[in-house]
Amino acid sequence: xxxxxxxxxxxxxxxxxxxxxxxxxxxxxxxxxxxxxxxxxxxxxxxxxxxxxxxxxxxxxxxxxxxxxxxxxxxxxxxxxxxxxxxxxxxxxxxxxxxxxxxxxxxxxxxxxxxxxxxxxxxxxxxxxxxxxxxxxxxxxxxxxxxxxxxxxxxxxxxxxxxxxxxxxxxxxxxxxxxxxxxxxxxxxxxxxxxxxxxxxxxxxxxxxxxxxxxxxxxxxxxxxxxxxxxxxxxxxxxxxxxxxxxxxxxxxxxxxxxxxxxxxxxxxxxxxxxxxxxxxxxxxxxxxxxxxxxxxxxxxxxxxxxxxxxxxxxxxxxxxxxxxxxxxxxxxxxxxxxxxxxxxxxxxxxxxxxxx
Length: 357
What we know:
Blueprint: E1 33-37, E2 40-43, H1 44-59, H2 65-70, H3 72-101, H4 108-122, H5 126-136, H6 140-161, H7 169-178, E3 188-197, E4 200-203, E5 206-209, H8 211-229, H9 234-241, E6 252-257, H10 263-270, E7 281-282, E8 286-296, H11 303-333, E9 336-338, H12 341-355
Antiparallel strand pairs: 1-2, 1-9, 3-6, 3-8, 4-5, 7-8
Helix pairs in contact: 1-3, 3-6, 3-12, 7-11
């Protein structure tokens, strides 16, 4: 197949004369249509927006149309991702159309609530949201369209696909038995800490460790551990020696989720038994020792408590296959008119490859 060079800007057509126009011609900008699906168009601009977003996600940086024109590596990447973008775009269009057919409506109130959720989760005010949208190259209307598409897709999955996916209690129990690690309570520890601060000095605008201060801090923490191992009350040692804010509470820190700790600290605490005192640990700010007060190990949650989670996991695992079958049905009923044979060939090749997996 002859390699198709993917254009990067919307096509502009200058119409010199059309019925109803005066003798003086007018310039009309027309979006280049790639394909029509049940009369709804997918344009070159639509494709370009999706291409840029995919490449942004892959490269973790902002990418412009100018970048696509000038960066050889991006152009090659574009050739790789465009076929699958076309498949996903048409699948989405079919599902969105079906969502409208079954009467799903995305209201202004739902959009308003979605915006409030975004602002709350990202700690943004209205100005911050506007700036974030600008950085992403999105208008508020385009964001609303994205939310609406997602809502319509979910409506089709919920109303049209999921009801055909029957699920018994026995299937849930089998999944629960086969995947107990997915339904564990969080393992926690309660500890007491004794922290010794090691001051740094500033040289050339950078924080530099003072060797003498480091040696003094290390001796202080070693002596504290030695005293603890000989049986001195750890709480009293904390009150006498610790520089941590937890000093007022006897160094007590309770309910620490082990999986939330750094791997290094988790490894240290995992080796301890209640009553044990750890070896000194160096951090950026100083030295610390920890006494393990208690441990609550992770255990599977009761089946009845997590059966709704189990059902959702099973539905999610089956959704892709069921959605493929549903989309195949929609395609056979749809009127799909390709206006660009190069993109048509890309689509067919990607569809064939996807069907093979």
